[in-house]
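Q: Could you fold this chain for me?
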Amino acid sequence: MIYDFPPLEAPIRQGDIFIQIPRIDFSPRQMVFVTDEGQQAAAWRDVADVQEPSTAIVAIRPVAAIVATQDCDTLRSPDITLCEIRRFQEVEKKSERTTAAKSWKDILTQHSRINQKWFYLPPDARIGFGEKMAVEFLVTIRIPREDLEDLRFLRRGRLNQIADEHFRERISEFFRRYPYDEWYALDGAEFEAYRQQYPDAAPFPWQEVKPTESV
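A: Sure. Below is the predicted structure, expressed as structure tokens.
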């Protein structure tokens, strides 16, 4: 498909796909710290002003991820940023019940231009994807460069030239996009029609339907 398979010793590049990368999960409101007296539960806001480093117990789970850092920085930057890779139907909720090829075609072409929060990765047994996957730009993981270089045995492949150029542009579009509520210019009736499809949309003051005034 759209993947290349570099040798183990090849330098890390943008678009490299890793498996079993450690992702740390924790809640600042509920943390467990290790102190000289043992374990202590506390919220981060209660210990944030401590000048010395703290040691905490956190959950770690393995995930697939793709290198987002640019090539020039993957060679010398102290840290490398990766974006998590998840099942496509978990990332793009509109595809949860999609089965027909025509519907998939619309999602993977038209919706990919509209929704800038993900990048599509097709299935390929050689890279370990048994189903459609997606890069989720909202979820990033930072790993020291030298540590990631030691984990190159977990690299399954990388995007080929065409896909990598597209991936680079998608990242740029995501981080420079102008956030706005696309329904702001609709009138009241148009907004009500819009909300039937997107019930979470909140009306602007000029879109609220006012009750008819009595004479």
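A (continued): Residues 10-206 form a domain with the SH3 type barrels. fold (CATH 2.30.30.110).
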